What does this fold into?
Amino acid sequence: MFLEENKPLAPFTTFGIGGPARWFVEAALEDEIVEATVWARERGLKLFVLGGGSNLLVADAGFDGLVLRVGLLGIEAHADGPTGDAFGEWVYRVAAGEDWEHCVRRTIEDNCAGLECLAGIPGTVGGTPVQNVGAYGQEVANVVDRVRAFDLKERAFVELPAAECGFGYRRSRFNTTDRGRFLVTRVDYRLNLGGAPALRYAELQRAIEESARDGRQPGLAEVAAVVRRIRSAKGMLLVEGDADCRSAGSFFKNPVVSEEQAARIAATSAQGPPRFPAGPGAENAGRVKLAAAWLIEQAGFEKGYRLGAAGISSRHTLALVNSGEASAADVLALAGQIGDAVEARFGVRLEMEPVLVGF
It folds into this structure.
């Protein structure tokens, strides 16, 4: 286990913001993860697990503890049933440190459906069940088979089936009721060999129709390519040198509100907000999900808006960006200004999506 002191964290984040970690270690094996957690516990240090750095904002003062970067790699796939079939279920066992885009591309090359609409999302595999990563009509909760993790409370490795992960909209037990308890080391996905791509999201459907006017059914690779183009147009695809890419992606979650509140919000504008199903579960009965980007725009914030060195993306109002010299304080000040304005106009408090580290 190679420990480093006062390791800068900004280079490990897509925001490019944040102070140093008091201690830093990268673990390439599960044994090294156990060793690092024991080392931190014996010294009474706080522990933060770092993945791809695409969904977090690190404090300007950094993190006064041990940052453990998960570097476990490897992808294994096997058929769950008779082999040689053109259709059926395949299980992919993917180490938490694998790049997410690499994982998606591998499954598409194998003609396995289930992740194609999640192409182009930055980060690593280990973060996908934590945030229940989703986009364009898909979310990993639909395909996660089980999650292997180190239980910091029981000091043992566990394998949790999907039903025990507590998945919800951008939520799981890993970032709510059991936040900080489990350290994900592997995720198993159950995908459909030869399955059709998911075309449930209206924006994606329109884009597919425009790119395939002959009426034929698009393949997995074609759908993934269209998703990447949509993300790129919104500045949500990491491109070297693109100022709009120095962000954490969507900074606010789409709020879930009652039908009555949605109707009141719609009445404030000639054209009501885009709305989506709130999701399964009794807790979502009679509720609807609204587009946070619309609420932000209606509250008076335009693409390209700036507050000091922090700003809103020139291509998507849901992304806050670092113009080059922004601090974490700058970003939070802008987020607070936006949140206050939306709440004042619509009575809805937007929830931040990135993880805050060191605050």
